[in-house]
Amino acid sequence: MLALQRAIRRINTSVEAPRLTRFSLQAPKFVEVEFANGSAFNLSAEFLRVNSPAVDGKIRSIGGEKVISGRRHVGIMSAEPVGNYGVRIIFDDLHKTGIYSWDHFYYLGSNKFTLMRNYIKTLKKHGLSRDPARRK
């Protein structure tokens, strides 16, 4: 975690997002991020997982839409710094290919409610659920 804090201090983000001032992993449930403009966001593991910037084999493409279902109870196992621009989050469903840039965290936090509402609408439209499928 010390390396992650050092990386945060060296960060220069693009003009689009303010500079990240704090990153706090509250495993397994959520991540807290704060930015120089005073914006602070609490982003759940489920929200981060379904908004992963990576292409993943567990994503269903239905009518050209990216649909990830059954992740309500996913947890975060760890976060690893990647350069000076972000972190790789490792989830307990073994997804670990997404690199979340500081700008992406700002985008997610700034659009959290719209993104979550659209996610839930997409699941309903395709008859899917946030809950994992039951094992037989």
From TrEMBL:
<protein>
    <submittedName>
        <fullName>Myb domain protein</fullName>
    </submittedName>
</protein>
<keyword id="KW-0479">Metal-binding</keyword>
<dbReference type="Pfam" id="PF06155">
    <property type="entry name" value="GBBH-like_N"/>
</dbReference>
<keyword id="KW-0408">Iron</keyword>
<dbReference type="InterPro" id="IPR010376">
    <property type="entry name" value="GBBH-like_N"/>
</dbReference>
<dbReference type="GO" id="GO:0046872">
    <property type="term" value="F:metal ion binding"/>
</dbReference>
<dbReference type="InterPro" id="IPR038492">
    <property type="entry name" value="GBBH-like_N_sf"/>
</dbReference>
<feature type="domain" description="Gamma-butyrobetaine hydroxylase-like N-terminal">
    <location>
        <begin position="28"/>
        <end position="105"/>
    </location>
</feature>
